[in-house]
Amino acid sequence: MSPIPAIKDLPHLDDPLEDSKRIAAYRAVDENLDVEVHKIIGIGSGSTVIYVAERLGQYLQDERFSQFVSKFICIPTGFQSRNLILENGLQLGCIEQHPVIDIAFDGADEVDVNLQLIKGGGACLFQEKLVSTSSKVFIVVADYRKKSSQYLGSNWKKGVPVEVVPSAYVRVCHDLKNLLGAKQVVVRQGGSAKAGPVVTDNNNFILDADFGEIQDPKMLHENIKSLVGVVETGLFIDNAEKAYFGNADGSVEVV
Ligand code: 5RP
């Protein structure tokens, strides 16, 4: 057993960007987790959420909190997050058994002033949306680069991730361009030229659809969802309660 390291005493990491991710995640956990109330915890995907799981692991090692945190059930959003839960000694659960989640933490690719998000850079957007919309409280953790300078699409230039049924991907590419005005749509590819399309945990493909700057993310989300073959979009609308943006100097902006 050892007490949770105080944020002010943390040694710097090798990379200032990692410092900014860690400070956002640690502050988000410290300020939003209520160990006596929260029992089912959603754990998202990506490189910032690593520090959320790490912080929960530290709570588990602290005798003041251990009796509560050892009973937490953590719901993952994919393979990486499942491993994060296990590696930090936390209990893994599944959303089929726990469809109501008390609090979820996840990263984002871009966040606007209204807390609308682009997510899915890691191709886990369906489970991420399932977990975040099943959560009573959804907290975003991100480094300073993720805060949108204005409209969604101004920082994240790779396009809106869209999960599609494989047999419909050509039709959806066509509709995204011809019906909804996407400038470009690419089928996300695996690591190497030979790998072929990325296949999600649900055996679907991911399209990245470039709409430039998005003035009405809610309408765009609804329009994309209405296309035959679309499973889910990476536009997360009216769901996040707060976003923590970490800066390399150790400060955090909470929106
Ligand atoms: C994965 C996601 C991630 O949360 C998003 O890509 C942010 O990742 P990171 O914390 O590495 O910047 O949506 O599908």
TrEMBL record:
It comes from the Eukaryota. It is an enzyme of class 5 (isomerase). InterPro entries: NagB/RpiA_transferase-like, Ribose5P_isomerase_type_A. GO terms for cellular component: cytoplasm. It catalyses: aldehydo-D-ribose 5-phosphate = D-ribulose 5-phosphate. Gene3D superfamilies: 3.30.70.260, 3.40.50.1360. Its EC number is 5.3.1.6. Keywords: Isomerase. NCBIfam families: PRK00702.1 (NF001924), rpiA (TIGR00021). Belongs to the ribose 5-phosphate isomerase family. This is Ribose-5-phosphate isomerase. The lineage of its organism: Eukaryota, Fungi, Dikarya, Ascomycota, Saccharomycotina.
